Amino acid sequence: MPAPANAPALSLERFIPYRLSVLANTVSTALAGAYASRFGLTIPQWRVIAVLARAPGLSAAEVAERTAMDKVAVSRAVTGLARSGRVRRALATSDKRRSVLTLTARGRAVYRRIVPLALAYERRLLAEFSPAEQSQFEALLQRLLKRSWRLGPAGDARV
Amino acid sequence: MPAPANAPALSLERFIPYRLSVLANTVSTALAGAYASRFGLTIPQWRVIAVLARAPGLSAAEVAERTAMDKVAVSRAVTGLARSGRVRRALATSDKRRSVLTLTARGRAVYRRIVPLALAYERRLLAEFSPAEQSQFEALLQRLLKRSWRLGPAGDARV
DNA sequence: CCGCATTAGTTGCATTTGCAACTATAATCC
DNA sequence: GGATTATAGTTGCAAATGCAACTAATGCGG
């Protein structure tokens, strides 16, 4: 028998990384439009607000960690938010490199107005599913997320 | 009873759009690294190749439709691929606006070499799941994808 | 303590992306 | 069949992103 190269085929429409990318992009674009048009916020800025609303006083590095953004993106988002008076930036007394970030009253107000929008969109999206399917999907998504972190770049690790 | 504003809370870590974005980004970055370092391909270029491998002769607009990219991104990807001799760009005789895109032998060779890498990565990712969970996840993902298309921008439509 | 390596955060630069204007061809409608 | 409108694709410009170099402050080894 001839050595079977047996060219495997790949259909983009069925490729999971592709579908994840399209879905995430569609959803993010839909949300970003709302943040931008109503509040003049970018997605990175919204993420910073969302984290600080629940954990005031974090440093920029801690925000970066919790938002999966890099420190440059956080720095720029915070600069914009400070300029528009939504975030207050102070220095830690014990370590003057570290910043201490908190929402101002205006920042908290924006948060309170966005949350219902964001949750409503999420609800409309998940309305596709029954309650059982929703928790299934969330569980699977979470596992995949963790695995994607463990996995290195494509093509160099074995499982 | 006082009108209950009852400020709802939102935790970024549990917000589905956020998790989708992080997952898609992690996965895409891992793959993009492989395409770039081994073949000098960007993700848009890889998508164009993947589509043309299975459907030669498409126009740029048709490629855009199948890859969920906009026509500008397709145009630039094709320009790059044409320059590196991986795609041939001709004009339709019946309609001289329309392009007819096909992979060259070199383009097909790149496709044949990437497909195993891409599928291996997908397999490693999905190895998180049992076979039953895999098909569940795919089915749920597909439904969510379709719903996200039906849904407009956040905050303006009702279900 | 005093240099040396580390860490937090910012800035500059090069690349990517997205949108709008533009060119060329084709279809439509009196 | 000639003006008008629509479509395919490209180009240019402005904003977003990512990476590396930089500044400032701290920790640490001897």
Molecular structure report:
The structure is a homodimer of 159-residue chains. By secondary structure, chain A is mainly α. The first copy, chain A, has helices at residues 16-39, 43-54, 60-67, 71-83, 105-126, 131-150; strands at 87-91, 99-103. Helix content of chain A is 62%, strand content 6%. In chain A, a hairpin with a 7-residue loop joins β1 and β2. The mean pLDDT of chain A is 90. Chains A and B meet through α1, α2, α5 and α6 of A and α1, α2, α5 and α6 of B. Chain A binds a DNA duplex (30 and 30 nucleotides) through α4.
Topology:
The structure is a homodimer of 159-residue chains.
Chain A: H1 16-39, H2 43-54, H3 60-67, H4 71-83, E1 87-91, E2 99-103, H5 105-126, H6 131-150
Antiparallel strand pairs in A: 1-2
Helix pairs in contact in A: 1-5, 2-3, 2-5, 3-4
Chain A binds a DNA duplex (30 and 30 nucleotides) through residues 42, 44, 59-61, 70-76, 79, 95-99.
